[in-house]
Amino acid sequence: MHYLAGNLPRALELMPTVEQAASDHYKGVVGIDRSRVLLSAGLVADADRALVEASAALERTEMLTLLAEAELTRADVALLAGNYRLAQTISHTAVARLRRRSNRRATALGELIMLRADAEAEVRSDRLVRTADRLAATLSHLGLSGSGETGASDRHRIL
């Protein structure tokens, strides 16, 4: 409630920490949620620490989709911090995990983060364009495209 009202200090005060959570699954959920509040407060390094703890806990569970979500959130944090190689590594790992689970929607959304990381890490532009075109078509097919069209406009929006 406090988070939604914009009272981030109070929201963080009332939220459990990852260490306080009773199970590895709950540690993962708490870490992801807490990281989002920390990011909203501009505390990027603290958000990253919460995600490291959440990922470590989730690795001990069978909640692989949730682990991939934590990893993709951490890749986003790495992008914000300018750590593009870390964002690349983490996003590629998470997307590979989602592909093994055959979760097309989550995989496509993860590929958006992976594409951003690759672009920031200065991957060859011809490879990025091919990936963006394929991803635009996939997102459109899944009903996730902003304009509902594919092609150059989607490619530019994605990149």
What features would you describe in this structure?
The chain is mainly alpha-helical and 159 residues long. It has a single domain, classed as Serine Threonine Protein Phosphatase 5, Tetratricopeptide repeat (Alpha Horseshoe). It is 72% helix and 0% strand. The chain is built from eight helices and no strands. The chain has helices at residues 8-14, 24-40, 44-58, 64-80, 84-100, 104-120, 125-141, 152-158. α6 (104-120) runs antiparallel to α7 and α7 packs across α8 (152-158). The radius of gyration is 17 Å and the shape is globular. The N and C termini lie far apart (35 Å).
Main attributes of the structure:
mainly alpha, globular, Serine Threonine Protein Phosphatase 5, Tetratricopeptide repeat, 72% helix, 159 residues, single chain
Outline:
The protein is mostly helical.
